[in-house]
Amino acid sequence: MAFGSAIHELFEKVEWAEATDVEGIVGAWVPRSVHGDAVTRDVADQFRACMSSDVVRQRLTRPQGDVTLWREKRFEVLLGGELVAGAFDRVTIVRWPDGGIASACIVDFKSSRSADIDRRAGDYRPQMETYRDALAEILGIERKRVSCVLLFTRQQQVREL
Hints:
161 residues; alpha+beta; Lambda Exonuclease, Chain A; 2 domains; 5-stranded mixed beta sheet
């Protein structure tokens, strides 16, 4: 649990991969970390590995056009008469030239130790489908225009759902 919270603290600082000072983020975070030396060291190493991975960097690169980025954005929304609350780890919203929303992508960071990330991705599918519905409702767009991505930090792998 501490590890997951800590890795989110670092990724929250990433705006776009191509403009990220990885060592600056780590250097500012380590002295303030409350997670203990072993967790802090492991999280910092994993963050560095992720930010060196082409797969991860590609997913965190700024898309072309008019883009809005949300990081660690909390939400509450009514879905089917039920209040749903949560937090999006990262959402990229791409707009048409007229300002309307063309698409949105939710990226959720997972620090699972499991080597079977395809199975784990399946386990997370219900959560991500709820997040897709929530974001579509919040943005007022069709759910088919919302993509969902799991970014497995330990394995530096991405799975689109």
